[in-house]
């Protein structure tokens, strides 16, 4: 059986073979004889009047290369070819694809249309950008103007194509990677993610691709222009998450380009991934079956899935989420039991740390300590609503807390937290507070981290940098002063968390998988209400 990527390869090879059967590799075609592609719609970026063209002077030239690829040059009518996923698979995510070619032409098929069809099959609305290049009148900022206009077209059709405004991305190869990086580091573009494959990043001597630099910036660019278009020097805290791919033996575009961009991302705490392959050279595109780089589309797909850009909502999970929400609202559901003051026992808190008022549990946040259930639980469902009273609040719920750690805290009567699985409850301002203190914030997420404290657990992706925490796939909690609902399901060594009705994180292979439930006091006042539990077989 063919893998997904192999089947794409066969299909695209068949398509391009039909297009080029009667052509020699050296043949060139004028615009009127260009091959056609299975895009759903193709848009001119500009009118002839805007471009200063006449109807008769389309200068575009296409040269098939005999390997399922084609080379387009002398582009003076830029276009966006859009591939639309089916209504059933549409994720609401969109992406602009920028083929490479040293800003002298475009590798339009293997770095354009082949990629768009792959993205489309993943449920992404994909647009292949045929941008003006080749130097001369098409030097900077012309390619960037074309990319910005392509984004405008995507957004103009957002309602018609059912696109989500917070799932707009850009992907580029080689010089197209430079164009994509230029958009990714352009605050006005306001995109949400980027994929850069063997990209040209810097225009600095010794690092850049000289052909790309000359075609984009001219023969004698100023120092200011070189600095402006070295996009690693334009990365800041607002730059979108980015996935980078490069081969160590790339002789055309030095790997230093990707390394510099990723280093800048690290400096400014921009999330992303850098994949370096031992062999692959330059220009491998989507498919190179005999080299390690052939796996990069799989890695890219996984990255997009864990970030929620292409992971469609699974019907089973959606059903579970819906049931959980109804169960928390309906006292008539069988098996559910409210947790009240009589169900909890003080461990290492002060007498005034916890207090019940009209069914609401108030916590002062001091000292760092926990309140535990009177009994231990194994398999169960738990619903709890919580609200931080102040910005930057920190708290949590412990699942399967070990009796041994509770006994130690009770005996010591000193601040501390037990062993078990913590389900994080952070206010939105907590990360900002830690960052302002000059401390690292990459190791934790926000509302919905699930992680082990001195016990065993295999976290679900996305993962924290050290792999110990399950970060939430979506950030759905509301800020301080507003109530949030957590639904926690713990069954046979697996914990899953739903935040305000949507599953976001969890872990499996948990040992031990039985113990107390605890609510956490950790430095900031918080309230809990509507605590309910249903024990399961």
From TrEMBL:
What keywords appear on the UniProt entry?
Hydrolase, Signal
Leader sequence range is 1-27
Instruction: State the Gene Ontology terms under molecular function.
Output: hydrolase activity
Q: Which residues form the BD-FAE-like domain?
A: 80-262
Q: Where is this region: Disordered?
A: 314-337
Q: Which domain of life is it from?
A: Bacteria
- Domain 3-keto-alpha-glucoside-1,2-lyase/3-keto-2-hydroxy-glucal hydratase as annotated: residue spans: 335-534
Q: Which InterPro entries match?
A: AB_hydrolase_fold (IPR029058), AL/BT2_dom (IPR010496), BD-FAE-like_dom (IPR049492), GDXG_lipolytic_enzyme (IPR050300)
Q: Which PANTHER family match?
A: AB HYDROLASE SUPERFAMILY PROTEIN C4A8.06C, PEPTIDASE S9 PROLYL OLIGOPEPTIDASE CATALYTIC DOMAIN-CONTAINING PROTEIN
Name the record gives this protein: Pectin acetylesterase
Q: What is the lineage of its organism?
A: Bacteria, Pseudomonadati, Planctomycetota, Planctomycetia, Pirellulales
